[in-house]
Amino acid sequence: MDITQLILDDHHEQRRLFAILEQINRTDTDALSSIWDRLAAFLELHAQAEEEIFYPALLQAGIAARRKGAVENEALDAIHDHNDIRDAVAAVAQHQVGTDDWYEAVASANLANSDHMAEEEREGLTEFRRLAGVPQRHELAVTFAAYEARHYTGVRPVDKDPLGYVRAAEKRELPANGSLGVGSLRQV
After folding, report:
1. Distance of CA 46 to the CA centre of its chain
2. Relative to the CA of 123, which of 54, 72, 74, 164 has its CA 20 to 30 Å away?
């Protein structure tokens, strides 16, 4: 198991759910609402899991490899993107399901998320595979999967200050095994 693969798997599921929304008749507002609610919750859970687990590990790995500037820029951009996605998701709730305005808001959320995923896949995930060994990526994958499982009903969306987030994450020290001291991997 590898955290970068779990993140890619989540990205695939996000793309799949957006595609499903495009294929449902606009008059079937119950189905549209159900799929959108699931997707909106999943987008936030995924972002929060990355912010709790992946990006702190990427920052620490980058610092250790003397690539602080590159990974800082990736993390800053990711947190900014997550905030944009949260705002786009919140905008969907301002419209009646199935209307043109609702579809336009969903399309905006899809665009913000798609842009973020593409950049993350090209940069952050690639960089982390270069910087972190398989054992660390495995330990982080276990933590990531457990985090998403514990919060499967969703988490509260909270925008973050990108620079404040990066500075706080850089101060967190990760043990050599990559554990963040959360969940079943907590070190006692």
Report:
1. 4
2. 164
The one-letter amino acid at 8:
L
Dist. CA 59–CA 119, nearest whole Å: 17
Single-letter residue type at 80: H
Please, which pLDDT band fits residue 173 given cuts at 50, 70 and 90? low
Token pair in block for residue 138:
């495995």
Burial of 72 (0-12, 13-18, 19+ CB in 10 A): buried
Tell me the Ramachandran region of residue 112: left when phi exceeds 0, alpha when psi lies from -120 to 50, beta otherwise: alpha
Helices 68-92, 29-49: axis angle to 10 degrees equals 160
Distance CA 173, CA 41 (A): 29
Residue 103 · residue 90 · CB < 8 Å:
no
Question: How many residues can be counted in the chain?
Answer: 188
Cα(17)–Cα(162) distance, integer angstroms: 27
CB 24 within 8 A of CB 32: yes
Q: Give strand ranges (E) for the chain.
A: none
For residue 172, what pLDDT is reported? 75
Q: Mean pLDDT, the chain, as a whole number?
A: 91
Residue given tokens 């933590």 in the structure block? 143
